[in-house]
Amino acid sequence: PGTPIKAVDALPQITYVRPRVVVDAKKLAAYSRVCGFSKAHGVPMLFAHMEAFPLAMMYFGSKAFPWPAMGTVHLANSAKLIKRMPGLAEADVIRSIQGLPGVVSSSDFSTKIYVRGGGSDQNLILFDNAPVYSPVHFFGLFSTFLVNGIQDVTFYKSGFPAEYGNRLSSVLDVRSRRGGRDSSNSLFKGSSVQISTVATSAHTEGHQGPVRWLWAGRTTYIKQVVDFLRERGAIDLVLDYYFYDLQGNMAYALGPDAEASFSVYQGRDRLNFDPFLVEWGNTVIPINFKWKHSDGWTYRTTLAYSLMSQTFGLTSIFEFYNRIATWQAKQSAEYSGLEGHRLTFGEEASGMQTIFRNSQYVARLTFRDQTDFLLVSLFMQDKWSPGKWEITPGLRLNYASTLEAPQAEPRLSVKYSLPAKQTLDFHAGYYLQYINSILFGDQESINEFYYPAKKVKYRTVEPTASVLLAAGYSKEQIFNQFDFSLEGYYKSLYHLLIFAPNEKPDSILFDTQRDLGDLFDEAEGYSLGYEASLRRPVGTLFGGLSYSHGYSVIRENVFREPYYPKWHQPHSFKADLAVNWKGADGIWASKKKGGYFRSSTQVKYATGLPYTEYSGYAPSHLIDQNDGRMAGGPNPEFEGNLNVMRAGYNEAVVPPYFRWDVKPVDWGREGKWNFSFTILNVTNHKNVFFYTYDRQQNPPERITITQFPFFPFLLSYEYTF
Between the N and C ends of the chain, which has fewer C-beta atoms within 10 Å? Predict the structure, then answer.
């Protein structure tokens, strides 16, 4: 994908042709559009090689064809597509996902995603089939993946296949790009260096015989930028911070139908904001093997190791530490030799270790909770295509060593094709998650703190569960230009973890033999809504708009009444537009081969997120010392300090969110260089991040902390060797 193919013959690594294949020309045209081709890229020439269509399928991968199932977004050639849209100078995989309907972002400063009412920990993020936990930098301002090393991204909002498990809401499947040119051997051809306002990145790639490789790295100089501005009096801030990423893969072709690959990702953040110290990072190492047999069998094997660790605290006062390590072996087989059926079955075994440690240095106390457990899953699925129907039943069986009995996850998807390229979809499924994030308080945490489902001393921490029902309608090529989709869903949630030590009796709270899980309460909830989307995927002028309407509700023991969670956003309107001024598909042709000049823009308008307002105030010394109020509560030593009184939990909402970003300049030459200039928040809209109160004033003065201001200084330059 993304290569200007003039004919299938331009793929020299394909060495044979399966004869006598009947291909629907309209499907081939649709597939070309999914891959990002246009007429300028030679799609008409592909029709001259209809007999070679299965070869193109083998090269591009079968996941992009036929058209994705309901709730599924597939971005072939993802690096180029992601770079087209405005961003924080750095192209970002997860921020591109935040622009999709049904996906809520909590703020400008976070790359966490909340999908169709689910929590941020309910999203399975995979890097070459290996799980990645909390892939964020700079408190969530950036995500970790380097787009120059990515080939494609598949995002499942609902109804994901039975091969994916241990999550409730979504799957983000990120696949590495194979390095080097197809047509010739090279050591460094295609390598690049990119310099932006906040970071520098580089990548190198090559191809020698059956071996292909691509390695990329990135580091930030945010500290140096802050120091420069402070020395000139522009700001008064000391920020000792850095992050780095290393990402790459090496693939070895074992023949025309087999490949082994090794990938790695390593990233780390460290912030020393005395006395506050926080450090976190990921290490991910997947090894993959794929073999496609001529009799219709395809075998896949993955061996992977994933580690996420994080530490934060106040120097000499306290420290929290969390670590989750996963060793995973996954095997699957797919058989397409039975007419009208595509069978998939396999197994996945994950050995996990979680450690949670809390050290209170002042009190000389340390609490440590460690769990080592095994999660084994068997999965099977059949994609049956009788006539205009596509019926996909699936089943996933799970056994966790920390629980007593195995559990099953049945799933069913049904698709019916109507005339004029219309489709009806339905999905029903039951989902389980055995590793969950702990909710410690009202505010969004930097990273997730994970805890497994297991039997503890006083209770059983059950896996969270969800029942999902979804239905959709889609129509392709309205007026031969637009694609429309409408999807509705209902999702119920069970056994959500709430950290609630204040609700536990002293016999449990002060038992030194208890587990951390004994301090949890459970919550349940539901979400429902619908999403509509209209897109023009290719052309001189392309883009789309979407509208989402949904509700999320949670009920727990601490708050007797149901409440809206922090990510509840009833209405959301998103739009993006790109213009090719010069170059391929441009208004004007470029004088230089591969030259282009283009622009793009994004707009989002959404309902404000909920928060807990304050209904009154009183002098602190007039309030009982033992009323259980936390930071900012009563203190008789400072009678002038006022205490604010909380109203109903999350009953208020901040003003509506609006942001308009523009990339007016996206200028360069394909495969050679690129310069871009991005303006964030063109209208300088004051989007609320959170409210705080100055309690030295009487009455207390509410202070508004806002999100991104108007910021016209995001520059990026990339040069490819």
Answer: C
